[in-house]
Amino acid sequence: MGMILGKISVETPKFEVIKSTIDYEIRKYLPRVIAQVTYDPAQFKGNKDGGFMVLANYIGALGNPQNTKPEKIAMTAPVITKSSGEKIAMTAPVVTKAGEGGEKMVTMQFVLPAKYAKAEEAPKPVDERVVIVEEGEKNYGVVKFGGVATEQVVEEKVDKLRKSLEKDGYKVIGDYLLARYNPPWTLSAFRTNEVMIPVE
User: Looking at the Swiss-Prot or TrEMBL record, what is one Pfam family this protein matches (predicted)?
Assistant: First the structure.
């Protein structure tokens, strides 16, 4: 019932709020380990979040974990989606990054629990499409919003956030992330989403 009503009861990445305004927050995120998969959304026959299943299998969210230990890995939130100017698919705690150079590839990421401080500490994936990477400390401009994170809503949030950050003197140093904290069956009014733009 809690997931339908938007209760976030899983681990989330640690961060420090550096600045808070009416329009956004500047957050410093601590280093973290990420499991990611890069794929062509067309290969999943209309399911734009097909990479989610590959990562869910790696951590054992839907059965036996597909890693060499095999060790179940706790689900975390958010699912993050990363874009480089392309329109991207939406999910729950995963990161999706559109490919550079115009190809329509997507990279989806799960942030692994904090107990995995280094990439080599995480169980090795059986599926070679799953890659484990470390992300260092990073600052983001973040805006939180509810409802369904449609492409149009996300584009509007990204545009407004980027303009606000640049107006306030922040240098944008990369593409935006879309962070979704709830599974797809969460009622729209109770969903938590964030648009995150890396800044310095």
Answer: SOUL
Task: List the structure tokens of 2.
Answer: 């809690």
Q: Which three-class secondary structure state does DSSP give residue 52? A: helix
Rounded Cα–Cα distance for residues 121 and 137 (Å): 18
CATH homologous superfamily of domain 15-198? Regulatory factor, effector binding domain (3.20.80.10)
Which position has the token pair 């640049």?
166
* pTM exceeding 0.85: no
In tens, the pLDDT along 65-82 reads 999 999 999 999 998 877
Nearest to 167 by CA among 44, 40, 24, 37: 24
Summarize pLDDT for 166-178 with one digit per residue, the tens.
999 999 999 888 8
Q: Which residues of the chain have pLDDT under 70?
A: 1-6, 44-49, 83-104
The alpha carbon dihedral of 93, 118, 122, 35 has a sign of: positive
Positive or negative: CA dihedral 117, 118, 124, 128: positive
